[in-house]
């Protein structure tokens, strides 16, 4: 009789423990965050041009590893990690193109910036960008490497072209994915400044 009672008591304790610890078996929900690139601040000094420039911004090319929804973190030369709780609100190549257009509009004081599709006589120059690297490593160092060219809309021969390599030092993104978005936004701003200078130089009247 006592052995039966003990067995029932042990079974009751086991079931009670399982019920109390059942939450361990439940899937853990991850709170996700979504980010975009931030444009240049409104108090950024604008270039002085004779008249507002009309510029077309072509589709931006990026490596496939940057086109996933998850935010990428570089962990060494050959390893990329993807954060489980941080996502881009839109594809990074489109966000880069959109932010570049806004930045050039502010830096060149022009409301004639067009993206992807524009009429033959609608723009004076068109800009094309091919990004090779655009990420932040686990230590917080951001890198942007991109080739660019500026064309006339009716000619594929570049008026001006170049390669930009930018490095931005930031804090570690571990547990703080907003650091990545901020660092990449700063890199996009610096890249926009370089393009704005190149475009302004082409727009200056020849002596």
List keywords for this structure.
207 residues, alpha/beta, 8 strands, 29% helix, elongated
Short description:
By secondary structure, the chain is an alpha/beta fold. It is built from three helices and eight strands.
Detailed description of the structure:
With 207 residues, the protein is α/β, with parallel strands linked by helices. The protein has helices at residues 2-20, 92-107, 178-203; strands at 33-35, 54-57, 70-74, 80-88, 112-115, 125-137, 141-151, 158-169. Strands 1, 2, 3, 4, 5, 6, 7 and 8 form an 8-stranded mixed β-sheet that branches. The longest helix has 26 residues, at 178-203. The radius of gyration is 26 Å and the shape is elongated.
Tally the beta strands.
Answer: 8
Question: Rg, please?
Answer: 26 Å
Structural class: alpha/beta
Name the average pLDDT. Answer: 86
| Helix amount | 25-40%
Unreliable runs, pLDDT <50, ≥5 residues? Answer: none
Largest sheet: 8 strands, mixed
Number of helices: 3
- Coarse morphology: elongated
Percentage of residues in strands: 25-35%
**End-to-end C-alpha gap:** 111 Å
Give the helices and strands as they follow along the chain.
HEEEEHEEEEH
